Amino acid sequence: MILTVTLNTALDITYQVDALTPHTTHRVTDVIERPGGKGVNVARVLAALGHDTVVTGFAGGTTGGVLRDLLAPLPVRDALVPVAGTTRRTVAVADAATGDTTQLNEPGPTVGPDEWSAFLTAYEELVRDADAVALCGSLPPGIHVGAYADLVRRARAASVPVVLDTSGEPLRRGIAARPDLVKPNADELARLTGAREPLRATRDARRRGAHAVVASLGPDGLLAVTPDGTWRAAPPEPVRGNPTGAGDSAVAGLLSGLVEGAAWPDRLARATALSAATVLAPAAGEFDMATYRELLSRITVTEHATAA
Amino acid sequence: MILTVTLNTALDITYQVDALTPHTTHRVTDVIERPGGKGVNVARVLAALGHDTVVTGFAGGTTGGVLRDLLAPLPVRDALVPVAGTTRRTVAVADAATGDTTQLNEPGPTVGPDEWSAFLTAYEELVRDADAVALCGSLPPGIHVGAYADLVRRARAASVPVVLDTSGEPLRRGIAARPDLVKPNADELARLTGAREPLRATRDARRRGAHAVVASLGPDGLLAVTPDGTWRAAPPEPVRGNPTGAGDSAVAGLLSGLVEGAAWPDRLARATALSAATVLAPAAGEFDMATYRELLSRITVTEHATAA
Hints:
Two copies of one chain form a homodimer.
Chain A: E1 2-6, E2 10-17, E3 25-27, E4 30-36, H1 38-48, E5 53-59, H2 61-71, E6 77-78, E7 81-82, E8 88-95, E9 101-105, H3 113-128, E10 132-136, H4 147-157, E11 162-165, H5 168-176, E12 181-182, H6 186-193, H7 198-207, E13 212-216, E14 222-226, E15 229-234, H8 246-259, H9 264-280, H10 289-296, E16 300-303
Helix pairs in contact in A: 1-8, 4-5, 6-7, 8-9, 9-10
C-alpha cells in the first residue's frame, strides 16, 4: 500500500468564464468540483496505475464532507482525520478563450494540538502497513513548520521510504530529516539553495539531507541526483498545455517505480511520461492513460558523466 | 407578514485578496459567507427594521444546506422549497488596496416542472398571509421567462401588493402583468424602454403596466413615478462606497413604507436612507442602523410639478 499525506486538502473548483476582467461581473458558464490537495492528486494517479493507495490528512466542515463524497467513488481508501474547521476551497477561474487560469486559494482550517495528535496516531498506524509514504503540499494554519520533518523521521523509524513534496521553510526543515526523495521545481530549488543553475541547485539540495533529489524543469522534464547516479529525463519534445497537477503526476510516477523496485531510469521515465500526459490532457489535473503509454517508450533518459 | 421570493438564492462568498491579477495565483486572506440572492437581502433589511418576514424560493444540495444554516439564526422565517440541484455560489473577490470587487456568479440549479409546481403551491399559501410580496432577482435555469408575470398575477388575484425587482425579459413580461411597483436601476430602465433620460424612461416603464415605478439613480437617489405624483429623493450629498445590496435595501424601504401605509415621500425617504446607509457600511451588503436613522431626516424629497 502507498500512503499519501495531504495536511491541507482542498475542494478544487474550476469556473469557466469568457475572460476574467478585474472589477467586473462574470457569468460562470461551467462549474467543476474535484477532491484536491497535492497528495490527493498523487493518490488518484497511483490508483489509476493500479496501486493500492490510502489518502490521509485532514478534512472538516461542509467542504470536507463534499471532498469525502467525491473521494468515495474513486479507487483510493479515505483515511482522512476529522478537523473542527472547514476544509479549504481553491477556485481556478479558466478563461474560455485562452485557457489561462487565475487561482484563488483559501487558507484552510486551523488545526489544533489535539487534532495534530490524533493525526499522528493515525499516521503511525498507517505507516506500519505502507510500502512508501508521500508527504505533499502546504501546511494548514496551526501546524508547526517542522511538521514534515517529524513525519519524515517517523516514516524512517518504521523503515518506510518517504517522499517529500513541499516548499519554503517546511521543505528546508523536512530535507534536514533525511527523506528518501524530494521533488522540488526550479523555483522551489532556487529559493532553497540560492542557486539558479539546476544541476548545482539539485546537488546542493541533496547535500542538505535528501537521499535523492528529482527536480522538475517544467516542459524540459526532470533532473535526478541520486546515490546511484545523475540523470536527465526529457519527453520527445517539450510539451505545452495546462501544467496543473503535472508535478503531482511526476511524484506518482516516482513512487510507482520506487515500490516496484525499478531502476532510476525507469522511475524517471514513468514520472516524465505521466507529467507530460497530464499537461497534454484536456481536463486540468487529469492524465490520459493512452498518451502516458505512448509517451513512456519515447522518454529519453541520459546519465550525467560526472559524479553526483 | 412580508414575503420575499428569491428563485435563484445564492451563497455569497467574499474573498479578500491583496490585488486580483489575472493568470496568477492568489492567497485568499479572508473568507466571508452570507446567505444571498436579492430577496434574501431584502428580507434581512426588513427583519432589521422589525418587520415579520418570510423568505421563499429554492434551495438545494450542499450549498443550499449551508445557506439554510446561515439563515437559521436570522430573524426571518425560512420557507424555501427544496430543489434537486445545488444552490449557486457567488464569489466576490475584493482587492484589499482599492476595495474594488470582481464578481463570479454560478448559474444556479435547473428547476424542473414538478419543483416549479411545488413552489407555486407553497407560494399561493404564503401569499394568503402576506401584507406584501417582493419578487427579486434573476430566474434560475429551467424556469420560464414569464414566471414573474405569473407570480404577479397570483398575488394580485389574492389582493396582495406585489413589488418586482428583476431585469431583462423577465422584467418586461412581469411589468405587463401590472405589479404595484417595479424598481429598475438606470441601466435596466434604458434596456427596457430604450430611453436614457431617467424621467422619460421611468414614465415609459410605468405605461407598460406597473402602477408605480421607482428608478434608482445610483448615488443621486431615487426617482418615483406613481399614481399620486412624481418625486425625486436624494441623500444630503451623493454617497460613495460599496453599492452591493443598495438596491435591495431600497426595495426593503419601499416595502416597509407600503405595508405601514406611509405616503410616497416617506417611503422614498426610507428607501433612499437605507440605500445610502448600505453603501456607507464597511461590510458589503450590510447597512448601519445608526447611519440610517441619522440620514432619514436629511433626505430631500422633491415633488415634480408636471403630471406623471
